[in-house]
Amino acid sequence: MISKPKQVDDAALDDLVDEVCAQLHAGESVDVEQLASRFPELADQLRNLFPTLLAINSLEGALSTEVHSDNQTLGDFRLIRQIARGGMGVVYEAQQLSIPRRVALKMLPFASLVDRRAIQRFKNEVAAIATLDHPHIVSVYAIGEERGIHFYAMQLIHGQSLAAVIKELRNRTEQDQRLSGEALAQAVSDMEKQTTDGLSFASRLTQTNLAEEKGSGLFCAQHPEGRSGKRVLTPFPDQGEGFEEREGVEPAEVDRLDETVAETVALGRSTTVRQFGDSTYFRNVALLIKQAAEALQHAHDHGIVHRDVKPGNLLLDAHGTLYVTDFGLARIETGAGVTMTGDLLGTLRYMSPEQVLANRVIVDHRTDVYSLGVTLYELITLQPMWSGDNKAELIRQISFEEPTTPGKFNPSISLDLETIVLKAIEKNPNDRYDTAQQLADDLQCYLDQKPILAKRPTIIQRLNKWTRRNTVAAWASIAVLGVLLIASVVSTVIVLGERNIAREQRNVAQEQKRVAERELARATEIKRLMTEMLTSVTPEEAQGADTTLLKGLLDDAAARLAKGEVTDELIAAELHNVVGDVYRRLGLYPQAEEHLPLALDIRRRLLGEEHSDTLTSMNSLANLYLAQGRYADAEPRYLKTLEIRKRVLGEEHSDTLASMANLATLYLNQGRYAEAEPLLLKGLEIQKRVLSEEHPHTLAFMHNLATLYEAQGRYADAEPLYLKRLEISKRVLGEEHPSTLGSMNNLATLYEAQGRYADAEPLYLKTLEIRKRVQGEEHPNTLSAIHNLAMVYLSQGRYAKAEPLCLKTLEIRKRVLGEEHPDALKSMHNLAGLYLNQGRYAESEPLFLKTLEIRTRVLGEEHPSTLGSMNSLAIVYMDQGRYAESEPLFLKTLEIRKRVLGEEHPSTLDSMNNLAILYKQQARYADAEPLSLKTLEIRKRVLGEEHPDTLASMGNLANLYTNQGRHEEAAAMLETSLPIKRRVLGMQHPWTGFAMHGLAAAYLELGRTNDALPVLRDLLGHLAPQIEGPDASAIPLHLVAWVLTREIEEIHDPGRALDYAQRACDLREAMGGGASWSLLDTLALAQHKTGNTAAAVETQKQAVSLIPDDDFQRADAEQRLDEYEAALKGENPPRTKEVNPD
Amino acid sequence: MTEPDTDQLLTLAHAGDSMARQHLLMRHQEQLRHMITLYLDPRLSARIDSSDVLQEAMACAAGRLSDYLETRQIAFYPWLRAIVREALIDTHRRHVRAQRRSVYKEEQFPGPVSDTSAMHLANQLISSQTSASQRLDLQEAMHRVKQGLETLSPSDRDIVLMRCVEQLSTKEITEVLGITETAAKSRIRRALQKLAHIVGTD
């Protein structure tokens, strides 16, 4: 019985009950007496409650759906016993009544079949499977329905699933048993012997009449006795005719040679190398998988995809014959596309990337090729390919990780077999065997000791994939290893060749020739590998690598070259080219220049001008010049390469396209957009046609074209390209793939450039979230993502949000990379920029000084980044009114940029523009105007009228006119630029607001109140939504306040103006922005007009104090201060002249 | 790798991330399976596997996830749980119809607690408890508890099952029921006391 507890104890008891529940759920034991002694006042109630608590918490759901086996029949079948349970329901052994035979009867789960269409689909599917007639497919005999239960009957196989076999073999190798050719069959038979309790799949089936079974394939012919007797163990064939494997033909060190390359990239994975299995084991495994592949091909020919190939669905009988079962049912089971049933993890482990990631993507027959490949992997390594023990981890591994190569588990696996596995399990279906038959054929080649079809492209692909995810430092070290490897391999080839001739021993010579050919093939492959990898990295990134080790290796290779160690001139040329290229990639241009021209000279001399190697060298040299900014030297070489390649190789050749891309990049860098565009358009068109839209090269062209449009400010043209690239990347590579994230980031950058911060921010946030999760907090890409997000906040003036992000990236980069690392400097630079924008000059200045100092020292004075620092420092001085310090810096950047980049380069124009602003600030209008006009003229011509830079120039020039009182000209300029800004930048963009403000102000100055009024109204209307709500930023608030203080009856509303100006001031303060004098100026005016002239005087005093001494606007502000003071003394009515908001 | 929290997943899923959707649907599977097994009518259980109901519910949830993400009017787990319960009700109804030989009266859901759970429990006890007499006591207690649960009011039964069988935390229960944590704890305790009373005086 329950005694009513005292109220005061209830809460304590509630907590105690809760705690006991939690402990029980955690699997801990609970001692009720101990609890009772701890809480004596609750002891009785606790003792009362505890048995119930324990009992109910022990209730657990796990349903045993045993069919009672007392002579149950389903139609024509009498159930004998349950064999297995799986996601697809229960399998029984059953006796068919009409035809006396034992069958396996599979009952379908009820719930998935209540829907009439589902039932129909199930029937169709089983009917289709029943048409399959193949020695390695479990036959379906009949389908039926009885008492609402759907079932089908199929061939009963005497044996074990491969899953069980693998488990058994694993146990054996753990006891250091070596696996021979007989191991598989042995395992099956042993397992049958061991299981006597009726639980084993195999032993339950032994009473069945074997004579009814289909032929057991390959082994029957050789071991006919296997068919008649029960449990007659048939060993797998040992080396008979045509099967022998000559030891030593494939020297182990050659096999693993490429693995040393791969090893360096294998992320420090440690694996236990255990040499189990002799060659016959692997051959028999290959034979089994070949059987499975042929069975799958048969099904694919009938339009049936298995979808759930895994060891558990491959049955092996004691004769060594394999049967594929559970065909095509995965789809029925997962009608809605979500597989949730049963042993999901077990199934997931073998699923292809497209299966685990796909939402709606059609999964085709190549998913079976993949899953069979994983099965083969597991059979030869006896390790699961993916180690993940939860769904999320497995999905991540399947989607992004490269498996440990089988050879690392077991060096006795031959290179060919490993190659076959790796080809079958390629992430991208297009890279796999096209058909299951091809896989079977290649396994046959392996068995016949013929060259396999898969030409081991996998190393390159693996490395490429890997490099895409990892830092430049690591891949560069592979490249250098490759150089050394080529050198050694090439000399081996030569030596072997000489020896062969000398000895003239035919056998040895032949063998060595094979080795030599392999070496040469490898060397060629490594060269290709390096070239491919090298082309994927920008010099800027390479400069971020830790180059000390690399440089040492490179220098070593260079020294060996210089010493004449490589006597063959052409090989030397090859190495000069590679070494030079790597130097260039590392940003070590002077060193690169020692090698690249040399390579070109040799090749030109020995091979002629038009030889493809000569052209490669010419291209490499041009790349160097491009990187050095020596555009005039680069251009003729690019042009020449392109011309010859077009003529010799044709327009559609990949080398020709590469030349096109390079030339376009040069033009892009020079800002010669009009010339770059047709090249890119054409290249893109060809790539799309020749390679398909989804090919990485096509995507690269797409990207470059989009970059071009973005640079031109043709955002509307750039956007669909970026979107498309993102879409393809998401679909083909998955959402979390680095390329996809890169695309996402680019799109965000585009939005940011358009001032579409609201669109940009979520994309950046998403990129950041995924990168953080996938690559870790301190990964360079994650830091870039943080950095980009910070920049959006900066652009939006959300300084308070931007600052911690900037500080964080700087801190991590400093710590991880060191202070002088380019990325650390970039972070420092941006933080300084943030302070600059907030007017925190004292904090900004030392940071810019520091970056300038380091960059000058490390990169040289003329490096673009150094000039960037110089320019920013000049702005800091200018904004503080320290014009004398500012001017020489501006002049210097302008001079260098003019010289290095040319007068029309966007960066040169930036410098010109900044200098013009400096002059304007000093009221040196005569100096400023020609610069402003020139900048505008060039920008209009080169970038077009709609480019943001051009629009900025227009705005600046208008300002210049306004400041000189040339309001007519200002108004004209703004009348031209405003519609463009509204169209291109949109109303949200601050510049659009400024332009409207400027135009209205000009009209008012000209006394054209009627013209001003619609603009002011318009401005108010467009700003209205931006000033409401907590997200309003200071600029629109300020603009509105300014409008409301105008002396126009319809507009004038100093009360509201005061409110908005005050909010703007508060916001700036809250965001950490320093006070802005023009905002204070507006606030003072509002205060004055609302009658609070005393406050206005104070505010205006503060405003004046913030204006630099020699700024001409100071006089205006001081004049207004005088007016307020006079008004305070009652001398004059308010009369003011307004200034522009900043 | 740490699991992303539900909120992050929901945000990602809403943005169209298919993996996040999969994650979301998978993460509560075990809890839900417990719940299904326990509610599944023992008379149906020979044919119906909790996995099947779960699968059907998940398929349904997958289809409705987009709509849910638009509004997110209730927390995620309660939403998912509601769908599972609908699936359970459907399963019961359809079963009776599909059988076409309805010998059972269609019952108001939630129905009785599954028999097989108790059976399973007995099995479990053999392995987890040492003393034979204890085992008997517990077996007996569980049998009584199972019967007792059926006489509890639906709301009491629900909260006890959520806490003790579905093993939701008290905090999660507050989300399902929209009550405070204090109230939840006290309701659980009261329901358990009622149950103990029933079990003790049966």
Largest interface: A-B, 66 and 86 residues
Instruction: Give start-end ranges of low-pLDDT stretches of chain B.
Output: 96-136
Mean pLDDT of chain B: 68
Portion of residues in helices of chain B?
A: over 70%
Q: Please list the strands of the largest sheet of chain A in the order they lie side by side.
A: 1-2-3-4-6-5
Describe the protein's topology.
The complex is a heterodimer of chains A (1142) and B (202).
Chain A: H1 7-25, H2 32-38, H3 43-58, E1 73-74, E2 77-86, E3 89-96, E4 101-107, H4 116-130, E5 140-146, E6 149-154, E7 159-161, H5 162-174, H6 183-194, H7 218-222, H8 225-228, H9 252-255, H10 257-263, H11 279-301, E8 314-317, E9 322-324, H12 329-333, H13 344-348, H14 353-357, H15 366-381, H16 391-400, H17 406-409, H18 415-424, H19 436-448, H20 458-469, H21 472-503, H22 506-534, H23 539-542, H24 548-562, H25 569-585, H26 589-607, H27 612-628, H28 631-649, H29 654-670, H30 673-691, H31 696-712, H32 715-733, H33 738-753, H34 757-775, H35 780-795, H36 799-817, H37 822-837, H38 841-859, H39 864-879, H40 883-901, H41 906-921, H42 925-943, H43 948-963, H44 967-984, H45 990-1005, H46 1009-1027, H47 1034-1044, H48 1054-1070, H49 1077-1089, H50 1093-1106, H51 1113-1128
Antiparallel strand pairs in A: 1-2, 2-3, 3-4, 4-6, 5-6, 7-8, 8-9
Helix pairs in contact in A: 1-3, 2-3, 11-15, 11-19, 15-18, 18-19, 20-22, 21-22, 21-24, 21-25, 22-25, 24-25, 25-26, 25-27, 26-27, 27-28, 28-29, 29-30, 30-31, 31-32, 32-33, 33-34, 34-35, 35-36, 36-37, 37-38, 38-39, 39-40, 40-41, 41-42, 41-43, 42-43, 43-44, 43-45, 44-45, 45-46, 45-47, 46-47, 47-48, 48-49, ...
Chain B: H1 6-14, H2 18-27, H3 29-39, H4 50-71, H5 76-99, H6 115-128, H7 132-151, H8 154-165, H9 170-177, H10 181-201
